[in-house]
Amino acid sequence: MSTQEEAALEREFDVLMAKAGAKVPADRKAGILAGYKDMKRLALLLRQPRSEAAEPSNVYSLTGFARSKRS
Amino acid sequence: MSAPKVLHELSIAEAGRRLRAGTLSPVALTQHCLARIAALDPRLNAFVLVTKERALADADRADRELKAGVDRGPMHGIPYALKDIYATAGIPTTCHSKLLLENVPAEDCVVEAKLKSGGAALLGKLATHEFAIGGPSFDLPFPPARNPWHRDHFTGGSSSGSGAAVAAGLVRIAMGSDTGGSIRGPAFYCGTVGLKPTYGLVSRRGVFPLSYTLDHCGPLTWSVEDAALTMQVIAGYDALDPASADLAVPDFTSGIGRDLAGLNLAYPRSFFATQEDITAEVIASLDASAQQFAKLGAKVEEIELPDFELFNACGRVILIAEAYAIHEKNLITRPLDYARYTYQRMMVGATVSAADLTQAFRLRRELSSIINQRILGTHDAIITANGLAPAPRLDEFPADVPPKMTLQTMPFNVTGNPTLALPTKLSMSGLPLGLQIVGRAFDEPTVLRIGAAFEAASGWINQRPAVELQTAP
């Protein structure tokens, strides 16, 4: 990541913290910023083509998950 | 003829037989644990509170009941301890945090109520990473727990005190919680058994939440059978826990003692062997374990899983969004009352968008389907890595940035499957290594059967860390 990109990321981060109403203590900012950078990487991984079946209702597919009847 | 076992080496079943035969009393067993805690815990910091009077009162009551022929089940008269996020009526429950130092719950959590009515004796409350997240922190009201195999090393977390206390033989059973690996991480680093049950099998009511859809309650124990017997007491439907499954409680010990003939195990070698942080020693240990499962009668088949990073992305986005929702008000108004690592980890939740969270839940559905239908539709269980390397030193943790965790545990919080952490051997550095056994939903008996067979073959249970020889601070 270039210096320019790093600076842009930090500005974006500052906006998000302000929007949340958070006054981040200066000595704790670096750790959250590193976490934010990693979260952006993870968020990209989430965005891949999915089938219609991949939707949030009942995330645990009941087929084969729950026992069919009480023993 | 072997020497008689010291009391903390008695399994729950062995102790139970002696308690019922009258050759051992619950009070003597509890006093032994209390003496061991007094002698060794100053080196380990596993306990944040020892409830000596309560423990002895519980033990005395169990003594009288057993003598009168009242039998409350497998935990009757057995000492146990709770991670300090489990609410205990009249006993402080701090979550290892400044924010809850004065918190004394009026009611027990469900697990504590079940253990209490099962006649067990509460030894105390155990160290945790603050609010079950964060890391080993020195800026909290209580010091972090230390690894009994080497006190300069990390215990894993967040059930840090649970792992340390069980490994050091201070208690046979310690309750932990697992949102991304918080039972199985300490089990790996400290060399204990740790069971993350199926989501919905053990009530979470009264246990301080970290992430509603990822939190699981379960035991850390010294043996697989101890875990099975604990589950017999704590599992079951709770109408007031929205996640609770209304299903009959199985006999968790039903498969223990059986070989593995007829079982088909999936071994996703490339899932862990391609990870950047894994050591050659860990890969060799897992390959040797896979061969051991085959020797015990199972068919072991190498399979492929989706990339670990997909599970990791899915779980971490959900975890951090839900944790932030729970702590939002205090994070904004009292930032300095959280430990540095806790605050830094949780504040990332303020950056997660609604679209991120929705995409994570969509992916979760897909990954759950792959594990439950494709893999466990044709295999009885999955054998895979737990940690990628032995416990790091505490002084290797960075001061400013939360540490990267090198565990392979998050996938099975995402999918909700029962997962058993099991020690395999000591590394060349003298620290434990281990693996995970992942089963079909609500099929804990098969997971425990596989774990018990491996445990018996490995002989792990016969070694303990020499805490006595380590210098106190």
Task: Present the secondary structure layout.
The complex is a heterodimer of chains A (71) and B (473).
Chain A: H1 3-20, H2 29-46
Chain B: H1 12-21, H2 26-44, E1 47-50, H3 52-67, E2 79-83, H4 110-117, E3 121-126, H5 160-167, E4 173-178, H6 184-190, E5 193-196, E6 216-221, H7 224-234, E7 264-267, H8 269-273, H9 280-295, E8 299-302, H10 308-333, H11 340-347, H12 354-375, E9 381-385, H13 411-415, E10 419-426, E11 432-439, H14 444-458
Parallel strand pairs in B: 2-3, 2-4, 7-8, 7-9
Antiparallel strand pairs in B: 1-3, 4-6, 5-6, 5-10, 9-11, 10-11
How is this structure best described in words?
The complex is a heterodimer of chains A (about 70) and B (about 475). By secondary structure, chain A is mainly alpha-helical. Chain A has helices at about 5-20, 30-45. Chain A has a domain at about 5-45. Chain A is built from two helices and no strands. Chain B has an eleven-stranded mixed sheet, with helices on both faces. Chain B has about 475 residues and is of the alpha/beta class. Chain B is about 35% helix and about 15% strand. In chain B, helix 2 (about 25-45) runs antiparallel to helix 3 (about 50-65). Chain B has helices at about 10-20, 25-45, 50-65, 110-115, 160-165, 185-190, 225-235, 270-275, 280-295, 310-335, 340-345, 355-375, 410-415, 445-460, and strands at about 45-50, 80-85, 120-125, 175-180, 195, 215-220, 265, 300, 380-385, 420-425, 430-440. In chain B, strand 10 and strand 11 form a beta hairpin. At the A-B interface, helix 1 and helix 2 of A face helix 10, helix 11 and helix 12 of B.
